[in-house]
Amino acid sequence: xxxxxxxxxxxxxxxxxxxxxxxxxxxxxxxxxxxxxxxxxxxxxxxxxxxxxxxxxxxxxxxxxxxxxxxxxxxxxxxxxxxxxxxxxxxxxxxxxxxxxxxxxxxxxxxxxxxxxxxxxxxxxxxxxxxxxxxxxxxxxxxxxxxxxxxxxxxxxxxxxxxxxxxxxxxxxxxxxxxxxxxxxxxxxxxxxxxxxxxxxxxxxxxxxxxxxxxxxxxxxxxxxxxxxxxxxxxxxxxxxxxxxxxxxxxxxxxxxxxxxxxxxxxxxxxxxxxxxxxxxxxxxxxxxxxxxxxxxxxxxxxxxxxxxxxxxxxxxxxxxxxxxxxxxxxxxxxxxxxxxxxxxxxxxxxxxxxxxxxxxxxxxxxxxxxxxxxxxxxxxxxxxxxxxxxxxxxxxxxxxxxxxxxxxxxxxxxxxxxxxxxxxxxxxxxxxxxxxxxxxxxxxxxxxxxxxxxxxxxxxxxxxxxxxxxxxxxxxxxxxxxxxxxxxxxxxxxxxxxxxxxxxxxxxxxxxxxxxxxxxxxxxxxxxxxxxxxxxxxxxxxxxxxxxxxxxxxxxxxxxxxxxxxxxxxxxxxxxxxxxxxxxxxxxxxxxxxxxxxxxxxxxxxxxxxxxxxxxxxxxxxxxxxxxxxxxxxxxxxxxxxxxxxxxxxxxxxxxxxxxxxxxxxxxxxxxxxxxxxxxxxxxxxxxxxxxxx
Length: 695
Ligand SMILES: Nc1ncnc2c1ncn2[C@@H]1O[C@H](COP(=O)(O)OP(=O)(O)O)[C@@H](O)[C@H]1O
Ligand SMILES: [Mg+2]
Description:
By secondary structure, the chain is α/β, with parallel strands linked by helices. It contains 30 helices and 16 strands.
């Protein structure tokens, strides 16, 4: 058996351009880039390892019955300089020495059966082409910094869809290829907007473009704007930043922090911008930086984030040109759109292609946002229906059905590839004239033919949003072992990093529409319970959709969580959403107070005063009334409404004293002092500030 494995190993390694240096016991020691280095040696090594693992699994399956033992393989791969001498003994062709070799052995030791573990240097060079995840850093003898191992999961597909060939779109691809070439030549890029109806093929074309760009030497990154269910810290811009920092989608808080630190030491962002990068990568900054961030105005934070985004992509594109893709910007909110514009702006002077996809409906380019891209060369490509011959070719590649059926589907789909796909998938079981006429209805028809467990799972997943995690789905379907293989097999969902993604937003819509309202609410309630303690924002949104009485409280907590990260726009939106569902007086008051505080932080003093005035009406206890009045006064202080503000404090003081709220009294006196100061009443100011200290 070992002889067979060794022969396989040699063949595979050599096929990928490597050499087997020696076999030691049951170990294979392979070299890539010796004697002749190639640009993609690390990727070749990883690819060879994955193939060899598969080969060993096959051999194992064949002999297991006889040997009653499983053969497993594990691999460590490291990249770096080595000292190479031709070997004079029999111990391999070359003698290798150096740190790189020792670390490689260490990585091998960290690989569990079946795992391919690579070092940071290797990972840096292959992460565009392979899915992988950082493991726990380990201490290495004689090294200052701990070693971060990366486990390779699989080779990346340039978009799942590319498993099936692209048809047509030749014109568009030529145009895109010319833009990529131009970008390489002039080391300047542009924004590219792909626009079209749902299902027309925007994502497919964008995936094809990224694959092409990768072949041309671009470093490619992609993110999605979701209409619902985006985890906190994983909005499109943050996902993109995380990807630019080399983080995989499941990277934990420690990995995110390390990545920011690394980016800083590599000079990807300047020291001034480090603090913003923490926020943009959703990483917790060290205390001193956090304090700096806290002391900034909202406008300064916004400006800082925009500058940091620009700097990051400018610097990142110095090494390798960048191709960034943000899908479905028709769902982007105002903050995201501003940040996208900041990213796109860098394209004007750097080798960066910034691709966005959008539907016509909700296309931000059709509104005032367009002027945010002023100064950035922009190419818009509107996708029409597939040409009839292309649609026919696509149909032929998808279906084995008789020609007449296929032709019928092609006519019916009118050049929309998604519709065509769904029609063909359904046609297997029904006559064409019986097939429903919308994608939604088609999805339903197909779901009906799934086994109940999988149908339930697809419906449950639709509750979580277009992207969902397996753990959350398992919780919803109350099956800790559920896996999505069947759904993937049916082209309903596709794996994306550590998560799954509905193959199309319309498929998710169809699945969700198929649920009875009552069931939908039950599932949202279960989802809310799952996200509580994990993600405050998602918990609130699910409680809301479950029509749960817990929704207002959850919105308040979510708003506070976002505010504590200085994401005031998001926090404000959550408080306002909470107010629309809050029926209990106490909750209304708390949400009004939160909204007023946020408005004041955001420099909207007038709105803050009015929010507190509404709070005063909802207030009941002396404490609440005093809080609302002090809040109003704080806004009036900003707007120089001295007399009114002092009057409000006058009214608040007995209430706060009655309630013996010392924090509130302290704030009250401090604020009153702040009114006196610009009025030149310095002694009174001092007295009030002293009183504030006493409390
Ligand atoms: N030119 C094409 N060739 C082959 N398949 C395509 C093509 N365009 C779209 N498709 C397929 O049609 C479906 C919908 O396309 P997609 O790109 O997701 O649409 P959009 O992003 O515009 O909503 C996908 O399954 C995709 O793979
Ligand atoms: Mg799409």
